[in-house]
Amino acid sequence: MTRYMTAGAAALATSLTLGTAALADTSPDLRGTWTGTYTKVSPSRTATGDAPRFHDGEWLLDIQKQQENLFWGPSMWRPNSDADWRVYDATGTISLDGSGTIGLVESSADPEIGVNALVDAKYQDGKIYADFRSLRRGTAYSVVLERQVN
Fold first, then answer.
1. I want to staple 104 with a disulfide (CB 3.0 to 4.6 A). Which of 15, 116, 119, 126 is the partner?
2. What is the reported pLDDT for 111?
């Protein structure tokens, strides 16, 4: 009986290991520089009146490290090409279900800022389709990020 239990446990462990490896294989390699332009909406402020504000911008996500479905890199954005980049850290995870679904958190080392934004995204057809929601300023936008090739 013990021999059968041991064989069953070994088979289960092998199945779980192979299943985990198969899931890890479904994670695309996202390392590299991704860019896109967008139009964002920000809530009104006392100084700007009642109307929401619409502005164009540019986002650069530089995924420098990836381990299986987890990744990290700088997240930079600016209102136009003449402006300086605002730089944050991005940490993300690619869903293990093979769907290409990505969850990303943009944060700052500055404790006054902390978590800046949450991003829901999907990797599809070689692009990242992302929906950005700022937790600090109420800004929201959608963007298609394309990998930059040097």
1. 119
2. 83
**Residue 141 confidence (pLDDT) above 60:** yes
Q: Under the phi-then-psi rule, with left for phi > 0, alpha for psi from -120 to 50, and beta for the rest, what region is 124?
A: beta
Query: Does pLDDT of 9 surpass 70?
Result: no
Using a cut of 0.90, tell me whether the model's pTM lies above it: no
Q: Would you say 71 and 29 are in contact if contact means Cβ atoms under 8 Å apart? A: no
Phi, psi dihedrals of residue 6, rounded to the nearest 5°: -65, -45
Cα(17)–Cα(5) distance, rounded to whole angstroms? 18
107 DSSP β-pair partners: 89, 115
Q: Are 104 and 87 within 8 A, CB to CB?
A: no
Cβ proximity of 43 and 52 under 8 Å: yes
- Say how far apart CA 127 and CA 108 lie, in whole Å: 25
| Close Cβ partners of 62 (under 8 Å, ≥ 6 residues apart) | 32, 33, 34, 73, 74, 75, 76
The pLDDT score that the predictor gives to residue 149 is: 86
